[in-house]
Known about the structure:
Blueprint (H helix, E strand, L loop, with lengths): L4 E10 L8 E15 L7 E7 L12 H12 L7 E7 L9 H16 L6 H12 L5 H6 L2 E6 L5 E6 L5 E8 L5 H6 L7 H20 L2 H7 L6 H4 L6 H10 L4 E4 L6 E6 L3 H13 L5 E5 L8 E4 L1
Parallel strand pairs: 3-4
Antiparallel strand pairs: 1-2, 1-11, 2-4, 2-5, 5-6, 7-9, 7-10, 8-9
Helix pairs in contact: 1-2, 2-3, 6-7, 9-10
Amino acid sequence: MATPVTVTVPGTTANLGPGFDCLGAALTIYNRFTFAALEQPPGTVAITVQGQEADRVSTDASNLAYQAFAYYFQQRGLAVPAVAIAIDLAVPLARGLGSSSTAIVGGLLGANALAEKPLDQAALASMAIAMEGHPDNVVPALVGGCQLAVTTEEGQTVLCPVPWHRQVTPVVVIPDFELSTAEARRVLPATYSRADTIFNTAHLGLLLRGLETGNGDWLRTALNDRIHQPYRQALIPGYTDVAQAAQQAGAYGLVISGAGPTLLALTSTAQATEVCDAMAAAWHTQGQTVTAQVLGLETAGAQVSAG
């Protein structure tokens, strides 16, 4: 019987202001998935879940980590082996921190490990993108760091790592309510003006340079957006107050993490704790229960270990 393997997958933040649907970063918050082969008929699965919101995660074949595990073997034309999966959750569900991407990446890497790693990272990334539908969360979860994903005219995905200055610190404040990706997409317009398109193109270019250099003045300008954030702010009670508190405490700017409702500020390392406390306090005055964390950029991506 194969030795059990544990896959540790970082949560992610996507969109990053003007980087809608193309820019994402791995953060130092993790879900862990342990896979152990079972001597039972193919397709058998036993799942246990512990950690944050464990009672909300399915423990049958509909579990997303298992679906990714099965997808791996199905895509290779192989029977899905019997498996036990133990899940330890620290990334909150449906909050804009890539919980579904951790499950997809975890399932694929767990399957690849039990199959003695026949597929390389590029092949696994393609599978993850096919399952998720877009690359901005699954790619940084898999490979780490900040990643720009570009779709070619032929429909292929080109990945470009984005340098991230060590003094640029992400701070997240996670409210105790959810916002579905489908709802967040429904509020977006079908078309955009030329002016808004040019605005976002220029700001994304400046954001890439700001992240690389740590230039706070550039980041303060670059984090502005006209594609998704103006439309989604109304779905997040207290957004304006939290954004103002973050900036007054010294943050370069504040963005919606993924589809929300988690809000993410970028700040200098020296100001990170003050920004974190100010954001949490602002939301508390709105009557919201929140979790605030100073995080870092996870550069290594998903990791596979024995046991």
